[in-house]
Amino acid sequence: MTEVSEILMSVLSTIRVPRPGDRVHKDECAFSFASPESEGGLYVCMNSFLGFGSKYVERHYAKTGQRAYLHITRTRKTQKEDENNSGSGDPPKKKPTRLAIGIEGGFDVEQEQYEEEVKVVLFPDQQEVTSEDLASMPDVVRERVSLSMAGLQAADSVSHTLQVQQWDGEVRQESKHAAELKQLDNGVKIPPSGWKCEVCDLQENLWMNLTDGKIFCGRRYFDGTGGNNHALLYYQQSGYPLAVKLGTITPDGADVYSYDEDDMVLDSKLPEHLSHFGIDMMTMEKTERTMTELEIAVNQRVGEWEVIQESGSTLRPLWGPGLTGMKNLGNSCYLNSVMQVLFTIPDFQTKSVPLTMFVTKLGYGLLSGEYSKSAPDPGDDPSTSTEPRGDQVGIAPRMFKALVGRGHPEFSTNRQQDAQEFLLHFINMVERNCRSGMNPSEAFRFLVEEKIVCQQSQKAKYTQRVDYMVQLPVPMDQATNMEELQEAERRREEAESSGAPPSAAPRAQIPFAACLAALSEPETLTDFWSSAVQAKTTATKITRFASFPDHLVIQIKKFTFGLDWVPKKLDVSIDVPDTLDLSALRAMGQQPGEELLPEVAPPPLMTPDVEVKGILGFHGNEEDDSLYSPLLSPVLDDSTVSQLCEMGFPLEACRKAVYYTGNTGIDAAMNWVMGHMEDPDFSAPLVYPGSSSAPGTTPTESLPEEHLATIISMGFSRDQATRALRATNNVLERAVDWIFSHLDDLESMDVSEGGRSEGGSEASREPPPGPCVRDGPGKYELFAFISHMGTSTMCGHYVCHIKKDQQWVIFNDQKVCASEKPPKDLGYLYFYRRVVE
């Protein structure tokens, strides 16, 4: 028996064969971004199945005594090694035919071709054992080691298991209307061709209603092309739910849309439904692109957006610390852009974010420069390649993405997401995990003061709330090229009436000063209940900064809704300045001689047979009117509730919108709906303040500890957090708003050292601590911005530009280059840092 055989025999009991459910880390080092493609490869412990780069494997051996590791190295194939290569350029890539990721026919996340080499390495002397070497070893050694090697190679990597690696955008559900669809016996027969819209005569993008056979054009696309929404309008008039797209009917099926379910659906009885109008599926041929093909075309247009990606310029690649690219894991460009910017901010560079080692690992990977190296071209021979490519080896944040997305219905998928929503999601995670000690998200946190002035009594009310981002409106009516836009609209209407293709529309030029003015100008509140006059009246609301953060994030509200509630993106250019002075927007607080509105709650919404004396019910008292009796039965405006329901929103969400806006009309209720659609309890039943939140519960039940901890981390006591949550039925977002609108009430609360209320003299009471915010001058300089390309936050591509050492740098996933013409006018999120004089 050889020396190696003897060593393997002695450690055989520590060599395991992976079983179903075992977590195998064979794509990424636990402590760095080393991978099998990295120099030195990856060592997988054959006992714990953890992966280690060459810098960490000896440390693991020294700590654990584990001697056997599977060493995996991968090298890219060159052109001549690729059998499918045509002989020049990059290897041909299959064109996607399916709106999916990671499955046959979909977008391929990992398109590189590799050759893999595996062998067993025995520490500390790093003796190597190949599969061929095992053939001459004792049977018991050969069988156990071979099974372990084969099992590790066949096992799914844990990074791919944690991450939702496959997304199929074509999976459709059977429509609830399909089985019992009512079809009218109106004698309508549809010819095999020659269709046109019954309203506007359009001859493409046509949809036939499966109830009565009427044909109308589809929805208008974001760029003004497509249809004129006549099929949608007809559904709103008739209520007939299903329509089929003409031109997509083949013997294999067709595009069917359910307006009631607001989605593409399956119709198992489609042949029967089409036959009712004389259409034989077996003889039909495809003449139009399906909705899936249209969406695939949009997702392949990333390379066409030349301005934001600076495609027209020869960009100089950059390398070094803080200049590391990030691999796109399949629509993860939103995450890449946000994290590149965050790790430019000193708070995130120097303060540990206690979310697990994956965040620390990501920060090191981006800042160290260790992975800022040129990626080899798969079509080049490494021995003859001399010029560095723009693409980097970079880092693949698989474990980090799995961590921050775990349990989230959107960020756990491979679908494209809104960078602004992800930024707030990550800040929220940091807040939850930094309840004590240093908190890097404080760099963004600031206070907003809202001043409401009753126009009848001229008395004012002041409230404060915490925010992390300024959302800047886009006043389209302030465009400086209005005449050009109006002329383009006139030409579009002429082309539409004549059937000619529309010409490209100009981009609206909006002054940044106009956006800032729209944010700061007084807002008129109608139907405001004034405690001074004890009636509804008109008021004005003025919003100002009560504090200025170290780093200010500005979101340009490019994504909005049209009059038909169809989401759209505004195509605008805004002259965003390099320096910004917001000092004039500093809140001044109560002015000398200014009277405040009395702290009296508005009357509750009640049925006529409820006496007013029941307002405090079982849980209220004379000092606290925030809780109402569960016996009260608020009257909700049924017409407003019905209008919201007709728009497709859940009934309980509509009831809550009407309740929380005090029956003030459809506009206020709609604004509430749009502002709370992401709430976890959006569709939950309406629970009136002070009533039980569920059958058998009471307001004195235990509160969610994580909600309490979040509010306490902002500088408030446990009793104050408890009171806020009980006043808002344990909804964290509303509790935070409530606590800042009741600061005067909270100051009278007696808080002991342990955070529980105790009786005592007035002199012994100390005012509660305020929220933990930084403050300073309101002067800023731009240091980064994130841009979005595409028609919606749910598709397209994100890149970011960051100013480093007075040089703008573009981070486009794995490409990191010196920026020649940073498109500062087309950004979506802008990041400013305070200028200290």
TrEMBL record:
Gene Ontology annotations of biological process type: protein deubiquitination; proteolysis
Family per record: Belongs to the peptidase C19 family.
Active site: 333 (nucleophile), 797 (proton acceptor)
Ranges of residues in domain UBP-type: 173-281
UBA domain boundaries: 635-676, 702-742
PANTHER family, per the entry: UBIQUITIN CARBOXYL-TERMINAL HYDROLASE, UBIQUITIN CARBOXYL-TERMINAL HYDROLASE 5
SUPFAM superfamilies linked to this entry: Cysteine proteinases, RING/U-box, UBA-like
Region entry Disordered, spans: 70-98, 372-392, 483-506, 750-773
List of residues binding substrate: 207, 219-222, 257, 259, 262
Native source organism of the sequence: Cyprinus carpio (Common carp)
Keyword Protease attached: yes
Catalytic activity: Thiol-dependent hydrolysis of ester, thioester, amide, peptide and isopeptide bonds formed by the C-terminal Gly of ubiquitin (a 76-residue protein attached to proteins as an intracellular targeting signal)
GO molecular function terms attached to this record: cysteine-type deubiquitinase activity; zinc ion binding
Matches recorded under InterPro entries: Papain-like_cys_pep_sf, Peptidase_C19, Peptidase_C19_UCH, UBA, UBA-like_sf, Ubiquitinyl_hydrolase, UBP13_Znf-UBP_var, USP
Organism placement in taxonomy: Eukaryota, Metazoa, Chordata, Craniata, Vertebrata
Binding locations of Zn(2+): 197, 200, 217, 230
Pfam (any one): UCH
Entry keywords, A to Z: Hydrolase, Metal-binding, Protease, Repeat, Thiol protease, Ubl conjugation pathway, Zinc, Zinc-finger
Protein's name in the database: Ubiquitin carboxyl-terminal hydrolase
GO cellular component terms attached to this protein's record: cytosol; nucleus
Composition bias, Low complexity: 497-506
